[in-house]
C-alpha cells in the first residue's frame, strides 16, 4: 500500500504564491507517475499537473501553464506544486495522487486534500 500526505494549503490573496507538498510512504518503490488534482464543490476533480518518476516529464492543465510548476524529489518520495500568480479561480481543494506499477493507467492513491483559497 501507499500513503500520501499533503501540506501547504492556505488562504492567500490574488497574485500571491503558495507551495504544496506531498509525501509518500509505504511501497514507494512502486511509484510511477505523481500528480496534483483539484476540485471545487459541485464540479468534477480536474488534473492540474503530473510528473513522471522515471523521466521527470511534466504535464499541465492549460489553465495553470506558466504559473504552476510541479517537481519531485525521488530520494525523499516527495513532489511539490509551486503555484505563482494565483487567481481566485484557483480556489479549490487540492489533492496529490500517484500511480504505481500495479496499475499504471490510473491514479489509485490519493492524499486527504488541502484547501487553497485565493481572495480577490
Please provide a written account of the structure:
With 120 residues, this protein is an all-beta fold. It is globular. The protein has strands at residues 2-7, 10-13, 18-26, 31-39, 46-52, 58-60, 68-73, 78-83, 92-100, 109-110, 114-119.
Summarize the structure.
With 120 residues, the protein is an all-beta fold. The chain has strands spanning 2-7, 10-13, 18-26, 31-39, 46-52, 58-60, 68-73, 78-83, 92-100, 109-110, 114-119.
- Outline the biggest β-sheet: 7 strands, mixed
**Number of DSSP strands?**
11
Provide the structure class.
Answer: mainly beta
Task: Indicate the proportion of strand residues.
Answer: over 45%
Q: Work out the helix count.
A: 0
**What form results from the Cα inertia axes?**
globular
Radius of gyration (CA) equals: 14 Å
- Elements, N to C (H/E): EEEEEEEEEEE
Helix content range? under 10%
- The overall pLDDT average reads 96
Task: Extract low-pLDDT stretches.
Answer: none
Q: Terminal Cα separation, in Å?
A: 40 Å
Oligomer: single chain
Q: Which characteristics define this entry?
A:
120 residues, mainly beta
Task: Give me the secondary-structure topology.
Elements: E1 2-7, E2 10-13, E3 18-26, E4 31-39, E5 46-52, E6 58-60, E7 68-73, E8 78-83, E9 92-100, E10 109-110, E11 114-119
Amino acid at each position: 500500500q501507499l500513503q500520501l500526505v499533503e501540506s501547504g494549503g492556505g488562504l492567500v490573496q490574488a497574485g500571491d504564491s503558495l507551495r504544496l507538498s506531498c509525501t509518500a510512504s509505504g511501497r514507494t518503490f512502486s511509484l510511477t507517475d505523481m500528480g496534483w488534482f483539484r476540485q471545487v464543490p459541485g464540479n468534477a476533480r480536474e488534473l492540474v499537473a503530473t510528473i513522471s518518476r522515471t523521466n521527470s516529464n511534466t504535464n499541465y492543465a492549460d489553465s495553470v501553464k506558466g504559473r504552476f510548476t510541479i517537481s519531485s524529489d525521488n530520494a525523499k518520495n516527495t513532489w511539490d506544486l509551486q503555484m505563482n500568480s494565483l487567481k481566485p479561480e484557483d480556489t479549490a481543494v487540492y489533492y496529490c495522487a500517484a500511480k504505481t506499477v500495479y496499475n499504471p493507467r490510473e491514479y489509485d492513491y490519493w492524499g486527504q486534500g488541502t484547501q487553497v483559497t485565493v481572495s480577490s
